[in-house]
Structures are given as structure tokens and as C-alpha cells.
Amino acid sequence: MVSHTSASWLLLLLSPFASPALARNVSPRDAVPAKYHAAPYYPAPHGGWIGSWKEAYEKAHALVSQMTLAEKTNITSGVGMYMGTPCVGNSGSVDRLGFPQLCLQDSALGVASADNVTAFPAGITTGATWDKALMYARGVALGKEFRGKGANVHLGPTVGPIGRKPLGGRNWEGFGADPVLQAKAAALHIKGVQEQGVIATIKHLIGNEQEMFRMYNPLQPGYSANIDDRTLHELYLWPFAEAVHAGVGAVMTAYNAVNGSACSQHSTLINGLLKDELGFQGMVMSDWLSQISGVDSALAGLDLNMPGDTNIPLFGYSLWQYELTRSVLNGSVPLDRLNDMATRVVATWYKFNQDKDFPRPNFSSNTRARDGLLHPAAVLSPSGQVNWFVNVQNDHNVVARQVAQDAITLLKNDGSFLPLSNTQKISVFGTDAQVNPSGPNACANRACNRGTLGMGWGSGVADYPYFDDPISALKRRVGDVKFYNTDTFPGDVGKPAADEVAIVFISSDAGENTLTVENNHGDRDSDKLAAWHGGDKLVQKAAEKFSNVVVVVHTVGPLNLEPWIDLPSVKSVLFAHLPGQEAGESLTNILFGDASPCGHLPYSITKSASDYPASIANLKTFTFGQVQDTYSEGLYIDYRSLHKTSTSPRYAFGHGLSYTTFSFTNATLRPITPLTFSPPPRAPKSPTPSYSSTIPPASEAYYPPNFPKIWRYLYSWLPTTEADAAYAIGKAGTKTYPYPDGYATEQRPGPAAGGGEGGNPALWDVAWEVSVTVNNVGSKFAGKASAQVYLQHPAGNGYDNPVVQLRDFEKTRVLKPGESQVVTMRLTRRDVSVWDVVRQEWVAPGVGEGKDGYTVWIGEASDRLGVACYTGSGRCEGGLKGPV
Ligand SMILES: *[C@@H]1O[C@H](CO)[C@@H](O)[C@H](O)[C@H]1NC(C)=O
Ligand SMILES: *[C@@H]1O[C@H](CO)[C@@H](O)[C@H](O)[C@H]1NC(C)=O
Ligand SMILES: *[C@@H]1O[C@H](CO)[C@@H](O)[C@H](O)[C@H]1NC(C)=O
Ligand SMILES: *[C@@H]1O[C@H](CO)[C@@H](O)[C@H](O)[C@H]1NC(C)=O
Ligand SMILES: CC(=O)N[C@H]1CO[C@H](CO)[C@@H](O)[C@@H]1O
Ligand SMILES: CC(=O)N[C@H]1CO[C@H](CO)[C@@H](O)[C@@H]1O
């Protein structure tokens, strides 16, 4: 969403443009490249046809049946930006029936804009652990904190962007540049959050792979991500499918368009793919201020608009609320659609038992003071207590530190230089070693890169309760540390002792496009893949003076390390990613060998930006009209692209060293569910709640008599005359709405590829289990190993496939020298399938009579796959060179 505080005042400047009609003046469709097309898909599928949601829908049906028209439209919309307290999104309530306002709150790494919370490591850091137990544990802790603050809806996790463009601004909010890493991390995050009774939100659907030009504004539509069907299914939609399979309660659409149609009103995307094919039963919300049509977005399947305003907020105008009420009275939006929208919202609330003892919000996004305005955007607002300072941190610093520590990725360690000993003399260089001197939260929305970089900027942040910075942790550890708090190598550094170590801290930041930091517009369009603040030079200078240099990198994503990586004095390089509040001790525990590093790269690091095709290496720049971002590289992003062009990266996807070494032996492959080329047919949908479809009387929309309106608050009622006029239009039925092409009202049976949450349930059948024995074959250090499984399709199977694709992963426990552990990983039918665009079905090209089977590669990085199992013969062997 739009970062809090920024958007309001920025957009307020646009006030002369504001009108309720304005949002519609933006042409919703520009020409897209000929190949791409947003086909119509109507009507919006009803929710409630999947067994696990049955009870929630029955309860929702009972409640929604009692609601008036204005009550239904009230709960499908926010009450306005900064109007409801206290969250970034607040829906309308039905007080009469005990249905509360829902509090929707950022972010994916902690409760945003609140005190006494934990600032967890970012998504990219979590991805770098490759540790399912930690992904889940972080989700549990996040869920507890959102619940403790009274937030019904957690606006995370983020899996879009996936990280297609290394320069993309919000890649760090997600888990890494691979659909399976994103999917498994997101599913565990969702499970952890939702087990606490908090609704998780998977976002952003879809194609938000760069920040610049993403939003529709009065002058320009958001860019169009032009994505072909197979690429969408196998890369970008894949983590969303897994999230739906995990039972996620909410989905947020993206700002941009796909194939020329804005995501918030894209009928194929929401009705077709998300609700019918993936069988999503929860509620679909817009990203903040991204709704650009009223009737059309309702028909296309949007259920909840956030924060309620038109895309120029704060003028009391909405495309829904009172307008949705009018659209139902005048017959343009079928009551059937509104009933489904309201039922989805209420069913989601019941599904997570929020009708029982869910705390009311006890914090305010708008102020940290005890008292504040109850409706901050209203000029005259009552005030009262808004913050109760509920401390929800508990012992979550423990899991936060473990994630930060287990994410630390050792890229290089010449001559086993690390770990350090406590007696070594240490000089530290770089402003990134110490917390921002003005305080860790000095910059709103973390929109600056000063001091240790613990998270990117924008809406995906939280306030630090404290910041354990690296320099303090180093001083605690060794006492005598010389610290040069500068990014320019100082002239007064004396001659170092022979064994003296220079630790150089460098960083690279990125964030959301609403805020610009050091000329980077969300995306890293200015600094690109270079370290900020001249960090590369700082490393080079330190390497001239010192013969032992350790580089610590806090970064949102890949950097170009070529300026210094091969310098002989650069002994060791650690990527600490974005550690959140626990930046210090997590790092010193690794530096001094209390634990071996066990993080692995969640993306590739190339030797040159141009090692990728231009469509992913470059950001889209300004053009008049709609910027076209065409995914011409198809499936070939990150390592898939490098393998295709036989380009060696500097460090491969999945790479990460340890202080010890591991062997992978004794692999076995066990067939579990016998597969056929196509999955078995899906089951038909079960019945969904039914309601009367007669347009209700206009009186259900009237303002209550003498209602004391708050200026700019968004209400779902209409003045009597307006309600009567709309009703008359609907009743006469002579004036019809210009429905989109392909508009229909008859519910469909759903596509063959659907049938359950996430698609045909058979896609999740486990086809094979692979086990491997991981042995710590080192002699000095204990450590955790990452086991990664990559699938190789048989050649010449009629589909163009990447050389290998990650399909599962596991982390071992801490193994002492000589200790071993058998780890088991799984391949589902989906994992071994390709999306056949003609059949519109997942098919498994490596199964069936006379077919060559798949090769299942196992190892500790995409370029260290020494063990293979063959599904054709069932045989496994080791000691191989690997597929690339
Ligand atoms: C985008 O266009 C391509 C090419 O026509 C098509 O395969 C794909 O399904 C479209 N996607 C969406 C979401 O409309
Ligand atoms: C809509 O929600 C607001 C905020 O909770 C509430 O004050 C108002 O009464 C609700 N309107 C209806 C029609 O229930
Ligand atoms: C009904 O109201 C909506 C919302 O104001 C409007 O967009 C639509 O054109 C109206 N339909 C008719 C038939 O007047
Ligand atoms: C591998 O299996 C063989 C035979 O079962 C066994 O002797 C050997 O110890 C195993 N190796 C490891 C590392 O577990
Ligand atoms: C335990 C704790 O961190 N409490 C803090 C909660 O927030 C208030 C207001 O910011 C602080 O004063 C407390 O110290
Ligand atoms: C205003 C309000 O409802 N405050 C609640 C915040 O949460 C704490 C702990 O859950 C409750 O005790 C407060 O009543």
C-alpha cells in the first residue's frame, strides 16, 4: 500500500484536481503489445463452495441475510483515509448486528506505526534462512503481535514482486527470486499468523515488479505488466496458489495493470484465476487508493476497497460506499454481487473466529501520543485516548535474532579466515555499522539510509522498539574496537598490525515509490547495483591498507561485487540482508564462530547487470501514456535466465558457505502417488449461500434522520431523494449500464484446473519423496546445512523448460562434526507439471509409457548439485558434477 503519512499530504497537493468523477477520467485501457489481451471473465464466482469454509459461510449467510443494503455496502469499503481510527485501513461496521469495523494494518515485518512491537527481519532475510521452522515461527510471532494490538487483518506476506528485476524497489519485502521459495515461505508465514486468529493478506496480485509508474493518477495509467499465461502460472501466480492452498483469508490486488487492465478491476485475474481456478474463498481488497472504477471493479470481483476513497483521497468521495448503494438501487451492480462481497467479508471474519473475543485496536497509526484525534482527516474531530501502549513483544526478539542470524550468508571465506577470535585487533569502517545517530526511527517510513540498514522504506516497515547495532555488539564482544564512523576512508588510519582485521560495512537500500531516497525512486534507479555512499570505494581503500578485510553487507537485494570481490585482502564477505532490530548480536555470533553461518542466497549475484536480458535488467522509464512492461523473458528470470544463456554468476542462487563442510550421500527416491499425465477430474462446486435478488427498497439506503455527519467520513447511506431516484432507474430497467464485453450473470462450474483451494486438489498429491543423508564432515565446527531439491524435465518433451527449478528445501538441525541427519523433501504433482496453455491444465510431461522421467537434483546450492535421482529408474547416484 501507499506509505502512511506520505500519501496523504502528497496527494493533498493534487486537490485542485479532485472530483468524484476524476478517477474515471483516466482511460482504463491503453493499447498493449498485440500478443497480450485481458479477456473478460464474468460473473464473479460466489464464495462458499469449499468444504473447509462451509461453517464460516453458513454463519455469514445468517448474518448477511439480516443486513440492509447500506449495511452491506458499509462493510465492503473503508470509511476513508485517516477517518477511522486507528489503523491504515478501517472498514465500516454494522453495529446493530455486532459486526465490527475491521482494522487492517501494515506491514509484512511487524505492526507498522505502533510502539512496543518487534521489528522483525524483512522477508528477504527470512527467505535467506531457507528454514521452514523459522519461517513459521516468525509468522506465529507476527500473528501474536497483530492480535495483541487488535489488528484483524495483517497486510502480509508479500510475494509480488517476486524479484524479477534486481533493481525493483520492494523485492526485499518478499522471500526471494523464485516461486517455490516465495510460496513455501508465504504459506508458513500465513499458517503462523492465521493460527493466532489474525487474517493474513497475500499481496500484490500481480506483476508489481517495479515501483516507478505503478499507480494510476489523473495524468497517466499505471504500467501494464504484460505476462503470458504459462509464465503467470509457473512463476508469478505460483506463490498465490500456495497461499490460497494454505487458506489465506485475504488477497490484495496490485496498483499496476496486467495486459492493459488495472489489477483492481481485472476480471480474468480476480474472477477467473483467483476465485475460480484457485478457488479463493476469502476477500479481495484493493491496494490503497488503487480503485479506479465503481461498478466495473465490483463486477470484476473486488470485494473490499481500501481505504475507501477515490484515488484522490481525503475529499469525502468514494467509488463505493454510497455509490455502491446507488449502483445496486439503480440495477447496475446486481444485488447478487453485493451479497457475495458482504458474505466473503463476514465469512472471513468468522473463519478466523474473530467473533469470539478479538481485541479492539488499542493503538493509533496516526500518533504515538496517548490522546489524539479520533478522525484525523476531519477538520473538526473529537479527540480522546488512542494509544494504550500495549506491549506485544513478549520474547519475539529471540525468533527475530535467530532469523537474522540464520540468514547471514557467507559468500566468500578465503583460507577459512572467519571466524575471528576475540583477541584479534579490529578496525571498523562505515556508517552502516552504527544505528542512525538521530535514532532508529528518525526517518518516517524509514525513508532514509542513515546508520545500519535494518529494513527498506515505505509501507512495509515497522518502528524499532530498540536497535541492537553491529558496533555495540562488537564492542560488547571484544572491547577494543577502533570505529571510523564514515563512508570515506579516513586519512588518519595508522599502519595496521599484521593480523589486524578491517570490518567494512556497506549497504544498498530500496523501498516504495511514494518516497524518494537519495534520488532512488523506490526502485534502485540511481545507485543501481552499487553500494550506497561510495561503499565500493571504501572497501577498495580498506583493502589497500589492510591485508585482512571482512565486508558486511546490509542490502535489499543483489549488488555488483566486482569492484573488489577478487582483491586478495578481501578475505570474507557476509550478506546480512535486512536484519531488523536484531542486527548486532546476530552478526557477532557468526563473526566470532558461536554459530556457523547457514544463510543461502535467495537470488543470484551476477558479474554484470547485463548478464540478464534487458527486460529484467532494466527499469522501465517514463513514456507518455501507459508504460508497457512486457515479460518477454518468459520463465527465464534469475538463475533460470543465467542457466539458459550458460552465464556463470559471481554467486549462484542458493549459494552460502559454512565454517564446516557437509556431504550429501545415500539419497533415495520413493514414489508415493502414481501420476497420470493429466490430473484426475476435479469435483463440482458445492452449493453456495443464496439470497433474494430483488432490489431492496430505497428506504434501506436513507440516512438516519438528523444524522450528524462528519465531514469527509465515507458513509454508505444516500440522501432520500438520491436513493429514490436510483431506485426508480433500477425499477424501470430502461436505462442500462454499459457492461463490459463478455459480461454474464450465470454462475459458472469453474475451470478444469480448479476444484479446491489453490486449484485441483490432486496438484498437491505427493508424487515422490527424496531423502538424503547430510553429514557434517568437517572437524572443528558445528553447523546447519541447507538441502535444496531442483527438478530437471526430460529433454524434448514438447515444452521449453528451464534447466532446473527449485522444488523443495530443508534445513538440518545443528550438526556437530561427524553427525548426520536424514532430510526428506517432497515433489508434488504440481512440482513436476507444466501449465499447458492449450489444454488450460497442469500436465506432467515426465510420466507415462515410453516417457523419460525427471531428474531430481539434490545439493546445497543451484550450482552445487552433486546428487541425482531418476524417476524413470528410481535410482540415485552421487559424486556428480551437476546440471549446470
Ligand atoms: C495476458 O495475455 C496473454 C496473451 O494473450 C494471455 O495468455 C494471458 O492469459 C493474459 N493474462 C491475463 C491475466 O489477462
Ligand atoms: C458504517 O460504519 C460506520 C463506522 O463503523 C458506522 O458509524 C455506521 O453506522 C455504519 N453504517 C451502517 C449503515 O451501518
Ligand atoms: C448507477 O449508479 C452508478 C454509481 O453512481 C453509476 O456508475 C451507473 O452509471 C448508474 N447506472 C445507471 C443505469 O444509471
Ligand atoms: C550410507 O548407507 C550405507 C549402507 O546402508 C551405510 O553403510 C553408510 O554408513 C551410509 N552413509 C551415511 C553417511 O549415512
Ligand atoms: C515496554 C515498552 O517498551 N514500553 C514502551 C511502550 O511505549 C511507550 C510509549 O512509546 C514507552 O514509553 C514505553 O517505554
Ligand atoms: C481500547 C482497548 O480496547 N484497549 C485494549 C487493548 O488491548 C488490551 C490487551 O489486549 C486490552 O486490555 C485493552 O482493553
From TrEMBL:
Task: Give the matching Gene3D superfamilies.
Answer: Glycoside hydrolase family 3 C-terminal domain, Glycoside hydrolase, family 3, N-terminal domain, Immunoglobulins
Biological pathway: Glycan metabolism; cellulose degradation
Q: Which part of the chain is the Fibronectin type III-like domain? A: 785-862
Q: Which InterPro entries match?
A: Cellulose_deg_GH3 (IPR050288), Fn3-like (IPR026891), GH (IPR017853), Glyco_hydro_3_AS (IPR019800), Glyco_hydro_3_C (IPR002772), Glyco_hydro_3_C_sf (IPR036881), Glyco_hydro_3_N (IPR001764), Glyco_hydro_3_N_sf (IPR036962)
Q: Quote the catalytic activity from the record.
A: Hydrolysis of terminal, non-reducing beta-D-glucosyl residues with release of beta-D-glucose
- Signal peptide positions are 1-23
A Pfam family found in this protein is Glyco_hydro_3_C
E.C. code: 3.2.1.21
Keyword Zinc among record annotations: no
List the biased-composition ranges (Pro residues).
677-687
One GO MF term on file is:
beta-glucosidase activity
The segments labelled Disordered in the record are: 675-695
Q: Name one GO biological process term.
A: cellulose catabolic process
Q: Does the keyword DNA-binding apply?
A: no
Origin superkingdom: Eukaryota
Sorted keywords for this record are: Carbohydrate metabolism, Cellulose degradation, Glycoprotein, Glycosidase, Hydrolase, Polysaccharide degradation, Signal
Q: Show the SUPFAM superfamilies listed in the entry.
A: (Trans)glycosidases (SSF51445), Beta-D-glucan exohydrolase, C-terminal domain (SSF52279)
What family does this chain come from, according to its entry? Belongs to the glycosyl hydrolase 3 family.
Q: Name the PANTHER family on file.
A: BETA-GLUCOSIDASE, BETA-GLUCOSIDASE F-RELATED
For this entry, the protein name equals beta-glucosidase
